[in-house]
Known about the structure:
Elements: H1 2-10, H2 14-24, H3 27-34, H4 41-52, E1 70-72, E2 75-77, E3 81-83, H5 96-107, E4 111-113, H6 121-127, E5 132-137, H7 142-154, E6 159-163, H8 173-178, E7 181-182, H9 188-196, H10 198-207, E8 226-227, H11 228-235, H12 242-251, E9 255-261, H13 264-273, E10 277-280, H14 294-305, E11 311-313, H15 321-329, E12 333-336, H16 338-370, H17 385-390
Parallel strand pairs: 3-12, 4-5, 5-6, 6-9, 9-10, 10-11, 11-12
Antiparallel strand pairs: 1-2, 7-8
Helix pairs in contact: 1-16, 2-16, 5-16, 13-14, 15-16
The structure holds flavin mononucleotide.
Amino acid sequence: MAGMASALQRALSIADLRRIAQRRLPRSVFEFIDGGAEDELTLADNRAAFERVRIVPRVLVDVSAPQLRTDLLGQPSAAPFVIAPMGSCVLGWPQADLCLARTAAAHGIPYTLSTMATTSIERMADAVQGRLWFQLYVLKDRGLNDKLVDRAFAAGYETLVVTLDLPAGGKRERDLRNGISIPLRFSPRHIVEGLTHPHWAWQMLRGGLPEFENVRGLMGQESAGLTIAAKVGQSLDAAYSWDDLARLRARWPRKLLVKGVLHPADAVRLAALGVDGLWVSNHGGRQLDGAIASADALPRLAAALNGKLPLVIDSGVRRGVDALKARALGAQAVAVGRAALFGACAGGEAGAHRALEILIGELALAMKLAGVAAVEKIDATVLDPASLRAA
Ligand SMILES: Cc1cc2nc3c(=O)[nH]c(=O)nc-3n(C[C@H](O)[C@H](O)[C@H](O)COP(=O)(O)O)c2cc1C
């Protein structure tokens, strides 16, 4: 344990945490988390798009105490970060959902619980005193959809995030090759992976067989052997439409965010429908390969909306400076998926905490070096105009 703690402290970047996670996890699990769809073009472009943005620093600004606090959907957040919803992350660490949620609460930022989490809506709300958002996948079973929404309401979740970029599961070829499936079927290959990763295997065995507690029964034995994305995709309602979303809007009285928006025309229509914000995302490059990078889509969406709705962005955030860039391109906050999960896979709650500490520390430093004293003051003037034009 002491070894793990010092390895986490030695990790300087999210890339370092990713390497620790890669060593600890069997290849099939690591690739399930790390990988993207098909040729992973969008996965790579998500990073490239953030990396292309250039900052033009200001001087003679008092940056002795950078202010990271910001308003997010009407409530204060200690920093412009949110933890993105991630299903099945228990494969990387026992109770990974709880590790991530507790870390978010400790850092004063929202945590988003996935429909496909292995911690139920209620169990999470009991365990964590922090800002909780619930992510809904739209399922063919409308009754189950409504029940999930009502349960999230009763349990006090402040925001509902409806994910719309998964009318079908993306073609993740690594998962297909590795036989990552639901329910987990152990092939000789997985047994070898377990034997060569004894610490991980022991933790998994001790943790017992995890269950998708929010959708008990949905992931039954029929069609066993599909990859996780394909199995989720099979249960999803690919016919979900604008009228359905309007009904959801009427059912959910608190904040409603729509996740997976990339097209400016959709953004404008969603604003008219009365959602409270958009979550700009291509699902971390795990769905449509060839989809535009989120950081490229962001300024176009911001321009189309002209301040009508707050924007959250994810896909490719790996450095604190990405939050500065995202704010400058028009977002309120960035959501982190893998960056936080690599931390949890490297060392449970302590690892997730280290990931957030790294991102927040990097953002504070980037603000100082860029000459911006407060997150709320970041705007497009801090960017090279060419970065805005290119986007
Ligand atoms: C292992 C894993 C599981 C995910 N599960 C979900 C999910 O259940 N619901 C959802 O809306 N998005 C899910 N996502 C997508 C994330 O919410 C987020 O959009 C994506 O990870 C952002 O990209 P990043 O990992 O580069 O930060 C998942 C992503 C990963 C890596």
